[in-house]
Amino acid sequence: MKRPSLRTIFVLHRERLTTLGLVTGFLLVWEILARAGKLSPIIFPAPTIILTSFVKALVKGKFTEDTLISTFRVLSGFLIGGGAGLLLGLILGWSRRVRRILDPIVAALHPIPKFALLPMILIFFGLGESSRTAMVSIGAFFPMLINTMVGVLQINPTHYEVVENYGATRLDVFRKVVLPGSMPFVMSGARLSLKSALTMTIGVEMVFGNTGLGSVLWLAWETMRMTDLYSAILIVSILGIGITLILEWSKRFLIPWQNENRPN
Amino acid sequence: MTITFKGISKNYSRETEREVAALADINFTIEEHEFVSIIGPSGCGKTTLLKIIAGLIKPDTGHVKYQGDTYPNAILVFQDQGLLPWLTVLDNIGLGLELKRMPKAARRKQVLEFMRRIRLDGFEDHYPHELSGGMRQRVALARAFLTNPDILLMDEPFGSLDAQTRVILQEELLSILRSEPKTVLFVTHDIEEAILLSDRIIVFSDRPGKVQESILVSIERPRDRTTKEHPRFKEIHLQIWRLLEQEVRKELKLL
């Protein structure tokens, strides 16, 4: 095959190159304005300065412990809240009766901004780690619950009939239809659930202080250390992107039958 | 063994989420290895009848009799969507055996053997969405045949295929049935398909569905697409057309 010319590459990736150009342009203008003294060096240090201090912090391991703590909180909240959401979502999707009983309650609780529950949770669980875990779990619970339930409900009725026709037991129906049939929705539920867990973790840490990336962010703002602030934002973003990438990657094994996930 | 359908009726039901078409007092029998087609206007309860025989819907009255009082093992081939999208072709064909608790190694061997026989080999690891509609129906047929049911129920299995693919698959079905005789109850609204495949055709009337006429297809086998030139074929075609035309005109208020 002939090697594509530079011109072809440009035409093929026109949109991507434009995106890259926009971002680079923005950072370049920022850099120039900051270097020229047109921007407050305290609030908007030049991107290169932010990057240098970010790399320095990484090398020194300045935020390592807080990053690990926050990651642990996100994951444990996801396991508890997301796990409960998955279980209840499967039951709600599968059993018409349970759905009829519980759906109104879910519908009533779902729109509550979960962060508003913090004072109440503090009363129940006190100022320790359990309050943080509870908040993150609540945040992770609902997206998983709703998506899983919808995932079960959208399964084609014919698929149930097929396995019933071959004499499937209740467990067979669950194994062969309910679980795999809802899996694509469960995966998008997991994504939203993890996102919500991350948001909740940072928020709770901002309020609690002491430990975690949220507390680093808040302290940086209180002491006006903008490079720390930007570094922490960068780490949180990387955490969010990392979670998404891991989930996308796991789709190859969990839903290999979907077109775009076919492993080669 | 003869399978008898006795006094089966079903009214519209609101208790299930699935819509059920009405049936009124259905009575007929199918002999062993007989191929019977049901033809009739859409919405006359043909699918409902198949689902009742398959044990997926309970009839209001009536029952299916086979070897005394037991229900026959009846396997339904759906028009489409009958394959599970998350299972490979191998696992889809093996699904019936798997649910019968056949061990994995034996199942795999039997599935692969059958796939070779009907020339589906090479597609074991494909997912349904990677196959054409016609291939998907071949896989669905393979799965149904492999569990060796007492009666094979087919709900317009070639109904969503293009005309050419349909003809080829009809011939394919005839050829499989020659080497692997089965009792078949076949639902279609394609008159030519019904005549080509069947020993007998039952014409249903519009709602509530009931047996209007039973027509013997006395055309010798083996048959293929050239059977359509047979003078008897044309006679039966005309006869069924006349019966159906009335029902359709009634439904369209064109009488």
Number of domains of chain B: 2
Assign a percent range to the helix content of chain B.
Answer: 25-40%
CATH class of the largest domain in chain A: Mainly Alpha
The geometry of chain A reads as flat
The largest contact between protein chains, plus residue counts on each side, is: A-B, 23 and 25 residues
What is the name of the CATH superfamily of the largest domain in chain A?
A: MetI-like
The helix content of chain A, as a percent range, equals over 70%
Largest beta-sheet details of chain A: none
Q: Strands of the biggest beta sheet of chain B: in what spatial order?
A: 5-6-7-3-8-9
Q: What name is given to the CATH topology of the largest domain in chain A?
A: MetI-like fold
Low-pLDDT sequence parts of chain A: none
The number of helical elements of chain B comes to: 7
Number of domains of chain A: 2
Total number of β-strand segments of chain A? Answer: 0
Q: Uncertain segments of chain B of ≥5 residues (pLDDT<50)?
A: none
